[in-house]
Structures are given as structure tokens and as C-alpha cells.
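Subgroup meeting minutes
Present: P.N., E.W., G.H.
Scribe: E.W.

1. P.N. recapped why we're keeping a running log of single-chain structure predictions: easier to compare across weeks, and new members can see raw inputs and outputs side by side.
2. G.H. added today's entry (243 aa).
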Amino acid sequence: MFDGKKVVIFDMDGTLIDSVGIWNAVDAELINALGAQAPNECAIQHRRDALLHALSHTQDAYLEYCDALRKAYNARYSKEEIRAMRYRIAKHYLQNVIDFKPDAPALLHFLREKGLTLTIASTTSQSNLHTYMYENSQMMQKVDFAETFAMILGRESVSRIKPHPHVHHHVMQTLNVTPEECLIIEDSLVGLEAARHAGIDAIIVYDRYARDDQETLKQGAYAYFDDFQTLLYAAQKELTLKA
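Output recorded in log:
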């Protein structure tokens, strides 16, 4: 699994952090603020996933997502105003609610101790990543982002977001490594698709918000784990024996 690997590329939302449900709550509040009644959580997530996938080729997919909400609810605000509203709503969650998934910090510390280079390649914004790194006290107590990760890339770092592999190409070019020397840890079908396009093996860690795609993820992934505890155990077993 880690044999011959030099760089491990982590997704953020839904992978390292338990945040997908938070974004569903944020979008529900946003839709209500636009003067409409928000649909159920499942409908919100499916629409967001579908729109972001369809808009991944645009310069700012999340801005266009906000424009799609504007049109869907006949809102009187511009797409820029709606994006600003979305961020204001999200700020509390980003600072005080979102946290690492259980045992994710332990895996990060272990892999770094074993000499692997760790990176984050996320579709979330750099401002959100900055909040996690410097304003979310519970996350900051568990992981020193600047010390742990060689690169932390958000959606502004590349021209196209996942499932396009641009962010992974950027990592490989910057760190001068090949696809065979990299390993991606993801949670979603979009993330798995991006890994395939980049030619990089992907490990999938279960996330309850991707359970509808579970069988497809299991079939397409290099390995599939139910949680970070079992992935950490497998990594410890492999890398300890290798040493």
C-alpha cells in the first residue's frame, strides 16, 4: 500500500474532517435566507454534488454554484452576495464545530514520523483552510498544519477543481514526484475520479455522506477502510515491518 510511496495527498472535507453534514446545514440556512424553504439534507447534498461536478470546468465553481441557487430560488441577490452570505453562515461552523475525524491526526503524525511527505489537495477555499489552520482551536491542538503538511492547496490553487486532476498534477510537479510515488486518501466518488485521471492509487475512507456510492468506491479504490483507526493499524503494520 505504501511501498514505493513518497507523497501522501489528503482530501479535506469528508476525508480528514467530518464536514459534509456541516455544509448541508450551511446551505439549508442559506436557502432559508434567500426566502425559500430548504429541501431535506439529502436533496441539498445531491444537488450541490451534481452542480459542482458539472461546474468543475469553470473558473470559480462555487461562485457559479451560488448563481445556480440564485436562479433556482429567484433570489434578489447577486451571486457574489450569495457567496458572501454563505461564508458568513459557515464561519461559526468552521471555527467552532468542524473537527478531525477520529484517529485522523494519529495517522498524520505516524506517516510523517515514517518520513512520508504529506499534502492537502482540497476543493474548499483557501480562506476556509486558513480558518481550520489558525482559528479552529480544537483542530489546532491536534495538528500543526504548517509543520505537518508540505503543501496545502485549496480551490484557488488550480484552474479546475476535482474531478479534474489539476490539483494532483500541481502537487507532483512541485514536489518532483511521479504518480507511482504518490498515494491519495479520499472519501468520495469525485475524489476517486480525480485520482484515476491523475494515475495515482487512491485509498478510500468511509464517510456516511458517500454511503450511496460505497460499492462503486470499494471496486475502484486501491484499498477501502471503514475508518481511520483501521487504516492507521494497516499503515503501522506495513511500515513497521518494512523498517
